[in-house]
Fold this protein.
Amino acid sequence: MSSRTGYRIAALLVSAATAGLLVVTGAVPAEAADASDDANGGGFLTAVTVPDPSDGSGPGAEVAPDDPVMFDDLTPDVLDGSDDSVPAAPGVSDPGVSDPDVEVEAARAAVVHARTPANTMCSGTWTHPVSTVQFQRASGGTLAWSFKLSNAAKSALGPVVTVTMPFSYVNGKAVNPPYHPHTEPNWYNYHGSLNRFQFIGGGGGSIQTGDKVTFYWFLKGSKPGTAADRYITCRVPRPGSA
Amino acid sequence: MSDNSGAVRRISIMSGRHELTVHSLSRSEESFTLDYSITPPLPDDLETASPSGTPVFMWLEAVDDLGNRYDDVGGAHGLSPDGSRTSGTISGRPGLPSEAGSLTVRLMFMAGNDEFGYDLMFAPLASD
């Protein structure tokens, strides 16, 4: 990560925390996970209580959990703006959304994709304190994944969890994320796949062996004030690779 | 969101080891979703399953009678509260155009080296 990008990420995280929006916490803080393994990371995020005189709710209004950032509303049009406060991976249009939560997540996703060499194939089991992700590429080319919450995540997030994928990337460019939000009991297997994709801003194709991909999941818990994120950057393996 | 549940579809899957029941097809502007159950439950949904055990991967491919193709946008499944079945939903995008009269969904399952595909036709499609 360049020092400038690192500074911008740090500034974003600090500004979000200062605004009382997200605080990284939990057994494996996101930044620590970033430092230890760029390709396989994530962390637990909690909202804090801050005064907000503008919304009439007065001091003590909770910000993040009940002020939903509905990532399924992030259409390509929304993401196609320009906001200099958010760093972008090479070839990625800066997400022009104003919500600080989204800016932070966009920044994390973009930087993770840009800085990670992706020298590990998208196959097998990827463990992490937030979730275990497993990949397998079908003979026809589809890269399938499963996503299961850890016991720590189940405890932290509560009995029902909404899993979203606000951002994903292929070879340095943002693509229309291949996962729609699903809200289910925390023991469910949240699964998805990637084959055909559309770049945000136009164009697209199908994944090819060796492509660099980043998946960025955002989890919102039913327990008030809880959330988590998870990301993986890897290379598409040969068809038929487990 | 409208519901085009029509008749319940029930088929044997994965070499006869499980039975898939599709309960409904629901639609929104951006996507469509199948609500289904599988009996007996998928092995990776059982309480005894290891989180790192081999999962049954699942996705969909779909095409309508106008030739439009639809992509998988994932889903979620898990053990039902009574433990008798896997319950789940799986979605595709984009949303179905009002002109479409039918939709053929291929549900794909991959378990180890085995891949299985099953075509399900939904017709007629009620407009939104």
Observations:
- Confidence is low (pLDDT under 50) at residues 1-36, 48-98 of chain A.
- The two ends of chain A are 31 Å apart (CA to CA).
